[in-house]
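INPUT
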Amino acid sequence: MERAPETGEPLRLSLSGITKQYPAVRANDGVDLTVAPGQIHAVLGENGAGKSTLMKIIYGAVQPDAGEIRWNGQAVQIASPAQARQLGISMVYQHFSLFDTLTAAENVWLGLDKAMSLAQVTARIREVAGEYGLDVDPARPVHTLSVGERQRVEIVRALLTDPQLLILDEPTSVLTPQAVERLFLTLRRLASDGRSILYISHKLDEIRALCHHCTVLRGGRVTGEVDPTLQSNASLSRLMIGAEPPQLQHRPAQLGEVVLKVAGLDLPKADPFGTALEGIGFELRGGEILGVAGVSGNGQQELMAALSGEDGRAPAGSIRLFGADIARASPRRRRHLGLHFVPEERLGRGAVPTLSLAQNLLLTRTEGVGAAGWLRVGAIEAQAARLIERFKVKAGGPGSAAKSLSGGNLQKFIVGREIDAQPRLLIVSQPTWGVDVGAAAQIRAELLALRDAGCAVLVVSEELDELFEVCDRLVVIAQGRLSPPIATREATIERIGIWMSGLWDAPAADVGDVAAEA
Amino acid sequence: MFKLEPRAQASRAMSLLSPVIALLLTVLIGVLLFSALGKDPVRALQVFFVEPIRNGYALAELSIKAVPLVLIALGLAVCFRSNLWNIGAEGQFVLGALAAGWVAMQAGPQTSRAIVGAILAAGVLGGMAWAALVALLRDRFNANEILVSLMLVYVAEMLLSWLVYGPWKDPQGYNFPQTITFAATTKIPRLVEGWRMNLGVPIALAAVAGLWLFLFRTYRGFALQVGGLAPAAARYAGFSSRSALWTALLLSGGMAGLAGALEAAGPLGQLTPHVPAGYGFAAIIVAFVGRLHPVGIVFSAVLMSMFYIGGELAQSRPGLPKSLTGVFQGLLLFSLLACDTLIANRIRWSKKA
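OUTPUT
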């Protein structure tokens, strides 16, 4: 029997030769992975490296084509998530699966065997939550909880099944830096109890701070087995992408005239679980990149919809482009005035999944539309082919359906489509979400080039690193309100993290604890 | 063992082949079914697949059924592609027939043949007006267009009954619920002497070409379809959903009304309670079997008409069951749906059980 080298205990989980073939891609190719009891084991890799497939195989949601899984030394076939839970494997997904209208306890209860009553479940939640310092009030409806609190509900739900292995998929993408610290405390406590943790991430700093061991995946294969505490970001990055990320050239800003002026933008919620915007105001000049930081769900989507024109309810005069009031103008009118927008959802909003790239060009570009609305199909295809070439989009050609492209390539196409329109103001939401490192670097470089050419750029992102890398100034959005701007070189991660809880007015000394609650 | 795997991109070859495979499967299953029942499979197949197209006269009869199906299905295809579920084409068809019939009844001995143009225009307007009710209620009160359009079918049928039992009843009609027979000058011109095939055929073919151009070569047609495929993308692009609603419903109402006018002033020649013959509902199937594509709709409308005529013929043949039409329609739809799976998926054989 295999045993953990340090303790001599049997391994909690051992995978050998796991292979999974999908139609277009081999997602896992002979992957080996071993997890000892009490170990926090990182699985590091880019999007598309095969991390998710591997986790689904461990959690029984996907069956491998080849390979062996051993659980506490026994060979097992994990046929379903239910069986995985029975074995003692629990998973916390990246996107929470909670019902907004139910209380935390009811949500947890729904996911359990029906042997316990709601009162018993509530008591167990209090017990488990207290044991691991997971602050959760079981009686509160989920829609009143912050994102960090919702994640704690998910973790408590996973812990109630008393798992020996807890899988966390990109758990920090929705948390403030302070909330991340709290999560790490909880995870270390769980590990010291002998529970094993599989921690999936592409954030190098977090892995180095938290994990005991790290398996690096690239293109479905294991490219490294390392102790992350002994590694540098650069060496981990080399294992993950095969190269160090290219450095961006950041020239000093050449500020132009005021392009976008937002003042007194109030917007009531459009749906019950949305966020109302209150008194949003900022200015954006040509030749600069302004970043909007914030935890997701704090009004970013609502702000973007009001700026892009998809939500035309903004009060008259609250949004001005080159001095012209566009608060109620249609998206097409705004585009005509030079405002282009890249939404965060690529499929279904930025592009129609089943239509070809050439057809998707027509969503925002009308060069191929002739007199009386006739489409010049040849010209449109040629234009799409030029974009594919210029922005190095890997696609079969202008006729490929949008959904046949990888996330990174489709994002390059969409960003390219808007940049190629020579906008005077470009608004980009989550420019590199789910995009591989190479494509992300290319997109960031394009944004900087656009800024150097005098265009005003507004970037909304949940990745603080990204904002610090490309932006000249930062603002933070929290609970539908916007912080004052701060120059990026004067900002620190800690300060922005505190602002992300909405505390830009309070003195810096006593806000640290409150920030961690968010 | 085999399993289905999603293709990265829908297969063009399969989308053309799938209807052919489906038709072959239909014939094959049909033969097996009839042999098992001890019936002569060749005769049954002949009734459906040979007799309706055996000579020019038969083809002309086929066109009488296929033209309204094509016209209505074309309009519905635009609606369905825009994600608007107008299932009340039958009612719009009836209103088209009513409006056309009213114009036809105004004809006197001196009326010129130009009245045919007015009859067709009236039919289009009648159908549009009925569809406009649906659009208005959806636009103004967000009323569900599926329910409203369907319910308006029954209102239209009631309206027709009231008119032919009441104000429009032929005084010399022995109290039958029917209008006067329309004057000969109002008849839709026939194309060949002795056959019932009429001007509807070139109109339908022109509509096929027109709709193809609208859907695939105009910005407006593109915008409509984006609204149907991905509403969020249409909002992002700034395509108005209100304009899509009105365009699609007026267009499909107009097409159904045109079909109603061609029917009233064509083969019927008068209004009776039997104007609604189910074309409006059958056209929903025609539109989907034709993949909501103008050219595909021509083929599916012809096929559907063959089944109709075959079904009528079967009733006059000893030894062939009446339910034959339903069996063939069901088999065809079933095989088509099954074969369509292969457009977006492919079969992979694996040795492992």
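end of record. Chain B touches chain A through 23 residues (CB under 8 Å).
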